Amino acid sequence: MDKFMKEAIKEAKKGRDEGGLPIGAVLVKNGKIIGRGHNKRVQEDDPVLHAEIDCFRNAGRLGSFKGTVLYSTLQPCYMCSGAAVQFGVKKVVVGESENYTGTEDFLESRGIQVVDLDLEECKRMMGDFVDSNPELWKEDTGDI
Amino acid sequence: MDKFMKEAIKEAKKGRDEGGLPIGAVLVKNGKIIGRGHNKRVQEDDPVLHAEIDCFRNAGRLGSFKGTVLYSTLQPCYMCSGAAVQFGVKKVVVGESENYTGTEDFLESRGIQVVDLDLEECKRMMGDFVDSNPELWKEDTGDI
């Protein structure tokens, strides 16, 4: 498997083990991980701490994220996709887009390449969480 | 002036007085402010802490932000606009869109009403900052 997605999955598992949502992300620049994070919405009681936001945050103030590649275990929501657009990310690689979808067109319309690895491991990890915690998940998707 | 925009301007001034970017936001639900914040990117060395993100964060985990109105002293960037879309905000009221623009169509295409108050006070406050700190501002716009 893609080595960067493997790291994003590690992050997702950290989140799950903390009692939070199993979604992880890493940000890659010139072949190196410059930021990593996972969804901490439950853990920090913070509605904006999605995995990708946590990841950008941990990457810190680089000055520029232009040309970076964002790996996420799940298709990013609109906030996180908007962050990718705003920060000049050139490519978004997702583990799956079965448990969340709908932002691909937005990303592509802003010139960001989207690659869906369609990984069983990611689908199962997220699917199990959604099945066990439907209300928590609805908070993230805004469906509540 | 609109009483909620007045509060967003107060937040922006707090940010400016802390040495940060003069951008403020408040989130309103049923006529009451449920969250407020200002850009803390410089103060907390955090690339995602734009005013609107700080505002959502301070509103906390409501379960739902559906039907809220977001007031911001400046037209929100893609990350913050994406957050408004994701969280089901129904209307975005901005103090100005002269110092930043471009996300109106995205918001409107997702069914969010955008109202631009085109306020001299907001334009001057932000314009003065951009003139004095062009590099800091470029970090936020992704132009660096």
From TrEMBL, chains A, B:
Gene3D superfamilies this protein is in? Answer: Cytidine Deaminase, domain 2
Q: Name one Pfam family in it.
A: dCMP_cyt_deam_1
User: Could you tell me which residue ranges the CMP/dCMP-type deaminase domain spans?
Assistant: 1-114
Q: Which CDD domains match?
A: nucleoside_deaminase
InterPro entries attached here?
Answer: CMP_dCMP_dom (IPR002125), Cytidine_deaminase-like (IPR016193)
Q: What protein am I looking at? A: Cytosine deaminase
Q: What is the lineage of its organism?
A: Archaea, Methanobacteriati, Methanobacteriota, candidate division MSBL1
